[in-house]
Every structure is written in C-alpha cells, then in structure tokens.
Amino acid sequence: MDFLLRLRDSRLSNEYLLDTFYRRVIENYFCPGNYYIILIHGTYDIPGKASDGSEMFDASEEVYEYLLGCICPVKLSKAGLAYQPQENRVENRIQDWVVEEPLHGFLFPAFNDRQTDIHGMLYSARKAEELQPDFMESMFGCSAQLSAGSQKDAFHTLIADVLGGGAGYAKVADIYEHLEELAAEAQDSPDPVMLSQEEMRRLFEECGVSEEKMETFDQMYAAAVGNGSLILQNIACGRRLRIETPDVKIEVAPDRLDLVEARFIDGKEYLVVTVNDRVEVDGMNVRTIGLNEREG
Fold this sequence. Notes:
alpha+beta, Recoverin, domain 1, 3 domains, two-stranded antiparallel sheet, extended
C-alpha cells in the first residue's frame, strides 16, 4: 500500500515508480498472450452536504485522489474478407492488434463514506474464478476474498463438517430458513450483509445444533472459510432452493420450506410435500386424492 500511495502522490510523474509498477505487473501477472497495462491518475472534488442532506457541488470539502489501473488482453483481429468500395472488390481484411475489455482492474485507495480510505482498495476480475490471488499478494500485499461461488462451496463444507455424518434435511432446511429471515430483514439495505464467524456460530446455535457438535465450530470455520466473513447474498439459496434425489428434483421458495418434510413411513424415509391448492403435471392441472378418496 505504501508503494501505491507514493505512486498516487507522484501523479504518475515519477519514472522510477512507474517502471517499478510495470515491472512488478510483468513479473507477477499471468497471461498466456499479450496484454496492455492502463494506469490512470484521477481526482474528484467531493461535494459538500447541506443540513438537509442535499449535495453542494460548489462547496467541496475534500479532494479524492486515486489510481485506476486495468490489464487488457491484446489480440489480433480475426482473419476475414472485406469489401473495398473504392476498387469495387472483396479482398483479405487487414488484421490489427485489438485491445479487448479488461481482465483485471483495481481502484486505490477505496472511496467509502464520501471520503478517501487509504486502508482499502477495490480489485475486480472479469471471472471470479480467475482472481489470481498470488498476483494480488505479490502486487498489492493483500489477500483475496472468496468469490461468490467459493463462498457458497465453503458454506456447504461448513454445514457438512459441523453437522457431520450426513447433514439431516430438517436441520439444513432450518439453517436456510434462518438465512431467509436475515435476508428479508436486510432487503432494503444498500450494503451487502456480512456474516462473521461469531454470527455464523450464533446462527447454527439458534438452529439447534448440539453443543457437542459446536465444540469444534471455530476450527471447522477456519478450515472452510478462513479468517474472513461470508456475504449473506452469496450463501442464501436465492429465489428457489433445489432439493434432489437421484430420480426426483423439487424446487421450493425459501420462505416455504415448511411445505417439504422428511418423514419415516413403514421403515422408509420420505420427503412429504404439503399440497395447499393445486398440482400441475407438465403444465396440466391435476387433482389430488383426498383422505377418503380413491381414483376411479
């Protein structure tokens, strides 16, 4: 971070700092082809705020000074044919080197609560699974957070490890119902909801996970998630929770998990679905059989 601060404060006028930056990228960034490094220095006059909360653009109280960088792949345009109207003929199109959309980028320092945050930065990747954490560590001295998909996988691992021996349907459904309640409470919040290790521990306890299984929760969390927090939106089931057996798939709204129960009937385990209104088979309405009714 100190190096980036010096680079920002130089306003990209220090050749030595620029050469050092480019050399670090070249030494640590992996790209199988050619790429183009773009580095921009910018400033933003942060508007003042009146007592009623309105912005006053002519009353700037602070200047946000930042570096914006991105790495773009450079590739030859595809070979093809082109029409030349001056000569009224079709000929081979000239191939040019084309700068494509960025693969990775960063903004330093971060901009939080209408002010400069020199302790944070934003880092982005076109694909979450291609963050290049080694590059982040070597280039910026920071570790990458788990991607959305990795957070969901880590959460699944945490559930399986804590509950052990094959997580029971009822307990897992209870955990997801609690997540849905948290999501409903935070639906109007503009910021993502972060669930720390302690908050996840509390959630498992509220779902009735035994004290014996919770004894190793901290170790399980560290192994599955690490030192960070989980983002609620990444681990909640979203609009539909999918329940599958080898031969059957069921999709249910997360706030109606109570409609699907696990029961033992005559020594066999069943998933029982409560029918409140109607049933459709391949888009066709069908009737269900009442307690005292048989199909004729």
